[in-house]
Amino acid sequence: MTSEKGKIVGIISLKGGVGKTTTVANLGAALASEFGKKVLVIDANFSAPNLGLHFGLVNPKVTLHDVLLDKVTADKAIYEHENGFHIMPAAYLSKKIDPFKLKKKINYLKDHYDVILIDSSPNLNNEILATMVASDELFVVTSPDYPTLSTTLRAVRLAKQRKTPIKGLILNKVFNKKFELSINDIEQAAGVPVVSVLTQDVKVVESVAHTTPVTLHSPKANPAVEYKKLAASLIGENYKDPRFFSRVKNMFSKDVSKDSVNRLLMENEKKK
User: Fold this and answer.
1) What are 53-94's pLDDT values in tens digits?
2) What's the predicted TM-score (pTM) here?
3) Are 19 and 208 within 8 A, CB to CB?
4) What is the CATH number of domain 7-271?
5) DSSP the chain
């Protein structure tokens, strides 16, 4: 048991396919394996749950479904991954849920974990509202295109209405092409800082196929390193890229990326 209460972090988006679940899986794995934190990842996507599949957890007997139906307490629906972090999978839930029930059911788990990550539904209904109510802070996963930005703005507005702090945007599936929206464009439109930029990488797709987060499957791949940097900033720590060529590049580069600055600001805030 941790000496202080942990925090619940919701990862949201209002568009499927942007990498929300992959982000939750990788942040959870990185926080546990790289920083030694006690971590629980929860699948709160009640209509299309698949977080468990990212870890090879197929057809679990007890899930969050049973917790919300008052069949078991939340601790009975937790499974331990071989790398030390814990998973609470979900099953399809057709019944309309009370958006305040998730928080009631899992809030006591903050006494047992440093960080609890919630993978939300991408639907603008009680499912995503349940994650917003249960979370102490939120991150929005988006990609650098107009359709996704439009849904991102809706998610940001909804979170602000719920008064749940939005700590940052996670910009995923970036190709670094001129036709993509820039970080400045996205930040100005959303009024929220971009704290991570994840380029499109086949290693991520490969890791999903192997049901192992890329932070564990290919720890030196670019997206794995970026996930570790973001995980560090969530807990007020700094992660330095250990790769030789990256260190050399940083020695001769005068430019500091915008997301790096935003992470540093978030790290300093966590330390206060």
Assistant:
1) 999 999 999 999 999 999 999 999 999 999 999 999 999 887
2) 0.94
3) no
4) 3.40.50.300
5) --SS--EEEEEE-SSTTSSHHHHHHHHHHHHHHTT---EEEEEE-SSS--TGGGGT--S-SS-HHHHHTTSS-GGGG-EE-TTS-EEE------S---TTHHHHHHGGGGGT-SEEEEEE-SSTTHHHHHHHHH-SEEEEEE-SSHHHHHHHHHHHHHHHHHT--EEEEEEEEE---TTSPPHHHHHHHHTS-EEEEEE--HHHHHHHHTTS-HHHHSTTSHHHHHHHHHHHHHTT-------HHHHHHHHH-----HHHHHHHHHHHHHH-
